[in-house]
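Technical annex, item 7. During the second reporting period the consortium partners agreed on a shared format for inverse folding records so that results from different sites could be compared directly. Each record opens with the tokenized structure and is followed by the designed sequence. A conforming record, contributed by the partner at site C, is shown below for reference.
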């Protein structure tokens, strides 16, 4: 087995450390190399402000029907997979909290047994499959999800480039790019709604419509698939405007609060996904932490909907936003 190469960052850090040992000072930094997308996303979301209305505002309703499921909130759990620090029952804990909060869960990597345990919690579950080079594995996982009771399936096409951890790439031997023709066959092979995850441009969004996808998830996978890919909130508006009446447009990556969720909805998404915030809630207090987080986020969303005179989710649009630089 060949030795794993050090990352660019690791090489630079070691070089600087060794120079310091011989008292040579050469300032050198990668700057925001691996954090450019999260930083840009946060800066953009924080530049968006609401103009509130406090007279004659209506009570707000945050409920939504998505893929045939009546939910209490348009905020969902983005596709998660197990981190090394998580317990073996992490997925069922997340799903339990999701179910109690009236939301839905997307599940990434994991086997059939784990998927079944998550479904058994009563949470609506969407299985997101990787773009495997072994096409038969894609069909196998989709059909397994359908058989076990998932409400939808999908593929995060952006992971065709492998997985990015910081600035280290792996998984390229297992995953590869998918053609429109193959995706169309995959979509036609299931009765479940199919989601194309990782859409960041109009071309991919229009191809998703053409091949029969039920939804697109505007997502840069929190920068874990491609460095310097367009931040989701910036990519969202033109996609929603172009294909929003033809399929469901969802968004994730970098959204953390109820106000963030309202901004995502105002930019054109029908629902907003959160991943890392769910992980933080899980580590804070297990299933209860996940439930509490989603309830608090939904409460903040409700409050801000009232303040912007949006009685229902369909009332939310870009007119409630003002950019402040």
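Designed sequence (site C submission):
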């Amino acid at each position: 087995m060949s030795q794993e190469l050090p990352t660019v960052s690791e090489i630079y850090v070691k070089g600087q450390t060794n120079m310091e040992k011989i008292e040579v000072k050469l300032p050198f930094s990668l700057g925001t190399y691996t954090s450019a997308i999260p930083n840009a996303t946060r800066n953009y979301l924080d530049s968006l402000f609401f103009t509130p209305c406090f007279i004659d505002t209506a009570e707000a309703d945050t409920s939504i029907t998505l893929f045939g499921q009546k939910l209490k909130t348009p905020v969902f759990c983005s596709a998660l997979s197990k981190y090394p620090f998580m317990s073996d029952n992490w997925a069922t804990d997340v799903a339990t909290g999701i179910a109690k909060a009236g939301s839905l869960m997307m599940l990434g990597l994991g086997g059939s047994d784990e998927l079944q345990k998550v479904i058994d919690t009563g949470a609506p579950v969407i299985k997101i499959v990787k773009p495997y080079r072994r096409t038969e594995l894609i069909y196998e996982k989709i059909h397994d999800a359908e058989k076990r009771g998932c409400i939808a399936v999908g593929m995060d096409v952006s992971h065709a480039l492998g997985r990015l951890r910081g600035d280290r790439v792996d998984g390229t031997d297992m995953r590869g790019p998918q053609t429109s023709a193959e995706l169309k066959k995959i979509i036609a092979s299931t009765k479940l709604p199919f989601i194309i995850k990782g859409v960041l441009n109009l071309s991919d969004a229009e191809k998703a419509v053409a091949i029969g996808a039920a939804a697109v998830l505007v997502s840069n996978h929190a920068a874990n698939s491609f460095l310097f890919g367009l931040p989701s909130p910036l990519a969202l508006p033109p996609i929603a405007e172009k294909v929003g009446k033809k399929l469901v447009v969802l968004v994730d990556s970098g959204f953390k609060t109820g106000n963030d969720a309202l901004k995502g909805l105002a930019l054109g998404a029908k629902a907003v996904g959160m991943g890392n915030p769910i992980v933080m809630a899980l580590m804070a207090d297990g299933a209860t932490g996940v439930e509490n987080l989603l309830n608090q986020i939904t409460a903040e969303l409700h409050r801000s909907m009232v303040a912007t005179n949006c009685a229902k989710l369909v009332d939310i649009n870009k007119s409630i936003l003002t950019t402040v630089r």
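Residues 73 and 108 are 21 Å apart (CA to CA). The longest strand covers residues 75-80. All partners now use this format for quarterly exchanges.
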